[in-house]
Amino acid sequence: MLKIVDSLMGTGKTSAAINYMNSNPDKKFIYVAPYLGENQRIVNECPELEFRMPEARKYPSKYTHFKVLMNQGFNICISHELFKKIGSDSYDIIKRQGYTLFLDEAIDLIKIYQLSRDDWRILTEENLIQVDSNGYWQWSGEEYENGLFSDVKRLMQAKTLERISDRETIWKFPADAFRMFDDVFVMTHMFQGSLMDAYCQMEGLEYEFWHVDSQRLLQGYKSDTRTALAELVRIYQGNLNDIGEQRDSLSSTWFRAGRNRGKLSILKNNLYNFFRNIEHSRSIYNMWTCFKEKRRSLSGNGYALGFVPCNARGTNEFRSKKVLAYTPNVFLNPVIKQYMNTHGVNTTDDNYALSSLLQWMWRSRIRDGHEINIYIPSERMRNLLRYWLNS
User: How many CB atoms within 10 Å of residue 390?
Assistant: First the structure.
């Protein structure tokens, strides 16, 4: 059973995990964080446990070194991306060594698999792949060893690529990997209604809630206290918000629509006015985001260097930032949403959007209890935040 440590960002989940690991030196741990910088903290603060981080210098890949370290029984720190590579070739090692998994922040365990049309054509014409009776892509090129499609081969052999239509293939993390661990702790916030929650329901993974108290991990759910938080978040109100009045305004679909290309300059001017003329903030305190493909178009003087990706999480690097601008209007990928629905699991755009916004906001100084000013041009995203703060 998964242990979901559901506590607000900045409440000390990582510190509690460190205390747990240091208090249980007889256990073996794999700690998974979004970024390698956060893993270095685990190495530094758990010196007796001698955590190792895989390297690719002396091995064909980090994943190869990861398996070597597991075979040797070391405590190991890895990134989210490396964790996603775990397949059936690691199951026996994980089970034999009796590892406990710490997953720092919920992870996207289902996504659209991207491969060019030409690559798909080559794979099918060369009879290297086929679809099995359950809809999963299967590698059938027996003589193919190392080459350009080695990663594709590994994913198909692990049964992680599912063909859901003529145009779309889904990558899905193998749920059996979680079942190989002695214990699994997932440290996150707003787990219920998240994509990982939907994944657990779809894959039959049971879970229970835990929480953090005085830097300790304790069983049971504990609700957030948000009264003080509402006083720390100053949300901009004014005509700079006119651009985001419609429900789909500033969504990824909205940005792709040709009729809205001219509005990019309006949004860019709004960002400049907010930072420069309304908040009069210094660039070192500014933090902003947008969909990554629009970063160049929306960057401007006085705030460009304060860009933090809208999917940033699990890092304290930006905790001095106090003037924020969050421009994306976030929705679930409709293909993923439909996939979940066909498997009997309902997902909500609003919960996903709010979680994304909160994770990004908590990279700033609010995580230390300090006031922030934020510009959210999307009316939908503003209302989601207001409702959460006041509920």
Answer: 10
Is the fold of 2-109+179-219 the same as that of 227-390?
A: yes
Provide the β-strand partners of residue 64.
Answer: none
**DSSP letters spanning 205-247:** --EEEEEEETTEEEES------HHHHTTEEE--SGGGGGG-ST
Residues near 225 by beta carbon (within 8 Å), at least 6 away in sequence? none
First to last CA, the chain: 30
**pLDDT tens per residue, range 313-348:** 767 789 999 999 999 999 999 999 999 998 889 888
Half-sphere exposure at residue 261, Cβ-oriented, CA atoms within 13 angstroms = 3
User: pTM of the predicted model, to two decimals?
Assistant: 0.89
3-state secondary structure at position 332 = coil
Pick the CATH number of 227-390 from 1.10.3470, 3.40.50, 3.30.2010, 1.20.272: 3.40.50
Domain ranges in the chain? 2-109+179-219, 111-172, 227-390
Q: For residue 280, what are the contacts with CB-CB under 8 A and spacing of at least 6? A: none
Q: How many residues does the chain have?
A: 391
Give me 183's structure tokens.
């214990």
Is domain 2-109+179-219 in CATH 3.40.50.300, yes or no? yes
Check if the beta carbon of residue 357 is closer than 8 Å to that of residue 375: no
